[in-house]
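Handout, section 4.2: multi-component inputs.
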Amino acid sequence: MSVQLSANNYRTPLLNVENLSVDFEQNGRNNSAAESVYLNVHAGETVAIVGESGSGKSATSLAIMGLIRKPGVLRSGKVKLNGVDLLALSSRQRRRYLGKDISMIFQEPTVSLNPSFTIAQQISEALKCHGKMTRAQRYSRALELIREVGITDPEKCLQSWPHQLSGGMNQRVMIAMAISCNPSLLIADEPTTALDVTVQAQILNLLHRLQQKNNMGMIFVTHDLSVVSSIAHNVVVMYAGQVVERCSVDDLFQCPRHPYTEALLKSLPAYHSNTNKRLSSIKGSPPGTVESMSGCRFYSRCNYAKNDCRQSTPDLLGEPDSNSRAVRCFRPLKALSTSNDRPV
Amino acid sequence: MPQLLLRRILLVIPTFIGIVALTFFLIRLAPGDPILLIAGEHGVSAERYAELQKQFGFDQPLFIQFADYLSQVLNGDLGLSVVTQTPVLDEFGKLFPATLELALIAMIVAIAIAIPAGVLAAVKRNTLIDHSITAISLVGYSMPIFWWALLLILLFSVNLGILPVAGRLSFIYDIESVTGFMLIDTLLANDKEAFIDALHHLTLPAIVLATIPLAVIMRMTRSSMLEVLKQDYIRTARAKGLSEFSVIFKHALRNALIPVITVIGLQTSILMTGAILTETIFSWPGIGKWLLEAVYRRDYPVVQGGVLLIASLVILVNMVVDLLYVLINPALRQK
Amino acid sequence: MKYMTSSAGVPGITPWQDTWYKLSTNHIAVAGLLVLIILITGAVFAPLIVFHDPHEQYTDILLAPPFWHEDSKPGFILGTDDLGRDIFSRLVYGARYSLFLGFVIVCLSLLVGVAVGAIAGMKRGVIEAVILRMMDIMLAIPAILFAIVIVAILGASLFNAALAVSIVLLPHFVRITRAAVITEMSKDYVLASKLDGSKGWLLFFRVLLPNISAPLIVQSTLSFSNAILDIAALGFLGLGAQPPTPEWGALLSASREFIETAPWTVTLPGLAILITVLASNLLGDGLRDALDPRIDQS
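Output:
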């Protein structure tokens, strides 16, 4: 994996996100939702964005699609897809890429589908929007897509309304819709969170298979580290709007370097499968607003915090324009420690 | 769904019987002798009194009287007007097209302005446009329309002298009544001038009658659109790369209209209330003016029959709207 | 959002204080409330405000225009009507009728409506079905028509008009109370009170009423504006207040024939109605926003 990672560094990435910042305006104040995010995705690669709710992972993925709506505001950033900066385009020009070259699936499949249109209508709409197909061609393509995402009895499904299908079925439909124009990049925003555990695995497998088959780049947004291990190549960990660590999936599990990443791992049940230790949780909660904060944002919850952590803000150390390892900490962890007594 | 339809239709029956009962007891609730009331203010001789008593069945027990009345109503017999001695149903039938024409035009105007304006306000939320539309809607909703009518008369008829104040058509035109709709009849008579004259006569009453439905529908469309625009499927539609026009008018409006249609249906009752005031002020020869005059003249059979017919109309329209609501709402349709 | 300043859930703050806080941040609703307070004060202290008796006829000053007009007469700031009565005095006294009647009508309708609605919601079954059907019937007859018919039977007078309007407003209160009672009855705290021995009207007043008061307050405010409009409409049609009572609708009706010669006799009473109705609708909207937990913290 690490070999592939270094090889990737010499290729032009499919998606290159630079200095992306999103604010939310509330009562005349700006609250930062995502701050100066750098991100690269190559063709055939899955990058997971991991973090708690409110960490800015959804804001980042919506900003890549240009879908930030009020009270959200895009402050800065470049989103280059095959070299074209999507955010510099007019919304009319950008729409030609949305749903075609880059598409997205969401957390709540059932409410992400329009209740007033049948599945067939909603899938064929995406096809109609980006291509010149006849009605019959669109229908047969929709049928093909529905089969592709593993729905038995595709005809019946196409005639159905979203409320008649289960959450898992609806997510399959969303995926079919998203891949309808063979996008080079798929953003999946917590696609399995709202689903039953058994269905989760099916959807993950489906996404993985489609990605392999179409050599898609994928951004997989999740709060669930156990999902990450099975699908991602590289991982970006976000906390309170900032990227705190960036690494390959193997490095993430073998030697996390940011204390927050480590804490996340420790709260995983599987991580402790060999021991009888109690699951640990991260004390406290993420800061609601980061406006007036100085110092490291994880300071108050960090087990290793020192005085200087409060006084000045750590930078994301590493090469900001690549997917190589980077960590935002004054004293990154050297090796995995299972206890709190670690050398400084 | 057929069950739902059937249930809704069956529910109308007791309501209808209730309305018949209400109009039946109406006259009997009034203080004084019902026969004297029905006979009007001129009074009657003793023989005529007995004759009327027999004719109306007042010598029978109340229950029998009601059963008779109900069967009469179901046979389409609503009695005779005391003043004109013509059947109430005939008078209603003659005057109803005038009211219907006015109400339909008013409703079309209201919907045609209110829905786009409501959508615009929602899309441009918290801008000057939104605030203006919301303000107009609030004022319209609070408007005493009888005063609003007088203001419009003051401006357009008294000061500017461009629109007539009364009636449906100037006396110089003689148009044969075919459909009862003046706009259609003048066109059928191929009289362009008369058509324009009829349109002029219709303008002010239609504006007045449209005011409250306009305000209500605008407000409802705005809030319903705001609700829908927050939904996840709107984000999905945008993520597909659809144009903003498509997102708003196809994906959002389709869902936002579901509650708006219910509100439009509820306007029937408000339109009839408005028609009474509007027709009285503009001397519009419709059922609103007819009913009010019947009240002034104590023409009880007309009041009784008129109320019954209007109420039946309202429950009929409400039923149709309910069914429509089910039809346009896929989640309900499937059940 | 969780970091928004909101007093909700802060210990020591009652729901009413919370509502008041939310209402006070809604400038439009506060404006409506202020206008209503000014109108009520004006109506109560009418004799101290006006210079003339509303019924006194200054026969030498007929149809004098208001103060912004160059022909206006000093002392008659809003002019006089066709009988030489001071319009300002008549409008201020007219506020007494509109506001007082509106209040009485809403109270009457509220009392009866809540009682009937509570019976429907707590008893269910046949009683509920019959009550609901009756309300459907009442709603099927357009409001003004229903009021006109009631007035036609009882005779045209301000009292009868008020009675008619309160009957017309009744179904809304019944429906809202019933729906709210049914919702609340299924909640655990009601069950707990029942197990505690509360039942019947005691249960209703002690336990349910405080929890269903929000929609009733909103409906009362909105009904207040409807009542004022309906009373004015009936007055305008000659079925409510009778001349020379200075009720606003009756004033409008009486001055209709002077629309060409003295338009202010028409515009001013209508403006008074519009301002009053608008103010109470603004307040009603504000209350709805403040009391409706559904759109809380949006």
